[in-house]
Amino acid sequence: MSTNRPEPKSILITGATGGIGGELAKRYARPGRTLILWGRDEEKLRKISAVCGGRGAKIISRQIDLAKGQDALSAFYEDDAIAQCDMVILGAGLSDIKTPKDLTEDPQKVLQLALVNYTAPVTLATAAARRMIPRKGGRVVLIGSVSAYYELPFSAAYSSSKAGLASFASAARLGWEEEGIKVIHIAPGFVDTQMSQRLKGSLPFLVSVENAAKRIMKAIHHNEEECIFPWQFRILRVAERLVPQFLRKRILKSIRADQE
Ligand SMILES: NC(=O)c1ccc[n+]([C@@H]2O[C@H](COP(=O)([O-])OP(=O)(O)OC[C@H]3O[C@@H](n4cnc5c(N)ncnc54)[C@H](OP(=O)(O)O)[C@@H]3O)[C@@H](O)[C@H]2O)c1
């Protein structure tokens, strides 16, 4: 049966050594598909490549630091020349917060975070679109966060990097849609991975990594433009429009966050 949602044959996943990226890699692994798996940690990369290879996918793996933007761009061109990606999932990310004892976030971490969370994904997304357009289309998936929608005073760098990514997704979608490129922006709430496990205190509406991956794959399959999950955060997005600015600021300033 013909479908206008062709299954991707060649997928680049950044952050494949992480919780969400690793789960997506496993679920996308199958015979006839090439997975280009990128990560920084050599051992984790070896393990996830072995698992995905064991499921029948052809694996190209690369140990890379995405804070080195030029290296990442060159690596993309090299891997794409071999495997002609028809989907990129840009999932690598770093988080950091200002704990109650800090005056500000750590500037050194802010620099890394801006490079990994914003500069690298928008650069790779653009390079991928440029390669996919002459091949008549493809998908660019950007893993952001619900924090994109909130000015979080304890994580100005993280929340604004994700806000930048959300804004990039909207603009790029308009720019590329007539060229056959689908831009899919994923905005998860808390997902149970190493990233969220560093946070102290309660994590409302926490989702397992398995459920997060299923939800993301559904959004990709249906070419959803923006996928906010779990559903409680979609309700909040609507409800918050009714909250006056002064109250919004007061609520945001009252949130206490801490990490290991
Ligand atoms: N977990 C959550 O609650 C949550 C919520 C909303 C959004 N997100 C987003 O979801 C994405 C995946 O996060 P996760 O929860 O799966 O976290 P995770 O388990 O900590 O994974 C993070 C991934 O990013 C990679 N990475 C970090 N810095 C890198 C660098 N300099 N160069 C290359 N790769 C780098 C890590 O590679 P190595 O491990 O090899 O260093 C790892 O693969 C992130 O973009 C995150 O912001 C997560």
TrEMBL record:
Protein name stated in the entry: SDR family NAD(P)-dependent oxidoreductase
Entry-linked PANTHER family: DEHYDROGENASE/REDUCTASE SDR FAMILY MEMBER 7B, DEHYDROGENASE_REDUCTASE SDR FAMILY MEMBER 7B
Domain of life of the native organism: Bacteria
Annotated family: Belongs to the short-chain dehydrogenases/reductases (SDR) family.
A Pfam family reported for this protein in Swiss-Prot or TrEMBL: adh_short
Keyword Flavoprotein: no
Entry keywords, A to Z: Oxidoreductase
Annotated organism of origin: Acetobacter thailandicus
Domain Ketoreductase, first and last residues per copy: 9-189
Coiled coil location: none
Classification via Gene3D superfamilies: NAD(P)-binding Rossmann-like Domain (3.40.50.720)
InterPro entries, A to Z: KR_dom (IPR057326), NAD(P)-bd_dom_sf (IPR036291), Sc_DH/Rdtase_CS (IPR020904), SDR_fam (IPR002347)
